[in-house]
Design a protein that fits this description.
mainly alpha; 6 helices; 0% strand; Four Helix Bundle (Hemerythrin (Met), subunit A)
């Protein structure tokens, strides 16, 4: 059963178990999906109010795409971690099988961080133009996205220790650093908007 089809209580039970997966990467992706849901909700509520919100209607669709992609990434992360564990049981750390699995286990949280960054960036518009009665929900969504983003970047960096190819490590470390810096700049803009509106 996919994460998207699972009751949230069952997912939480699976995380809090003796199983290896779902683990941090999947939880970060699900958290990001929830953050997208909140921002999407604010867009919908704004479109249904008297507030001019043509741009937010398009953003609602964007957040919906992010939500669905992140739920898929949660499944992909669990599969990647399971594959990595299996590869370690059968092969040496430097083997092609392990290295391929390790790259996959690194690239999935890298994409999770990328999608969460997009949610944070789009969230600025929601805070500025969303229904004032629901702005707190948008801010909650953005803060969740930032936490999910930081968690995903941390997972990327932790998994880099598994990679034997220096160029692969360097490329992914650079991407992780760029994503972290961009997310901090975006969250600073959100904080500025929130402080201005209070």
């Amino acid at each position: 059963m996919t994460v998207a089809d699972q009751p949230i209580g069952q997912f939480a039970d699976d995380v809090a178990s003796t199983r290896v997966t779902p683990s941090g990467g999947a939880v970060a992706a699900v958290s990001g999906a929830m953050s997208a849901s909140l921002c999407e909700m604010v867009c919908i509520h704004t479109a249904n109010s008297d507030t001019p919100a043509a741009a937010l209607s398009d953003l609602a669709d964007e957040f919906g795409r992010h939500r669905r992609r992140l739920l898929t990434l949660a499944d992909e992360d669990a599969t990647a971690v399971d594959s990595l564990q299996a590869a370690f049981k059968e092969s040496e750390a430097t083997s092609h099988t392990v290295q391929t699995a390790a790259k996959r286990a690194t690239d999935i949280p890298l994409e999770t961080a990328t999608v969460c960054l997009a949610i944070i960036g789009a969230g600025v518009d929601v805070v500025e133009n969303g229904n004032p009665n629901a702005v707190a929900d948008a801010v909650t969504g953005i803060m969740l996205a930032h936490a999910a983003h930081r968690s995903a970047v941390f997972t990327v960096r932790a998994n880099l220790e598994l990679l034997a190819d220096p160029e692969a490590v360097s490329n992914r470390e650079r991407q992780a650093t760029d994503l972290a810096q961009a997310a901090q700049a975006a969250i600073d803009r959100v904080d500025e908007r929130v402080d201005h509106s209070l």
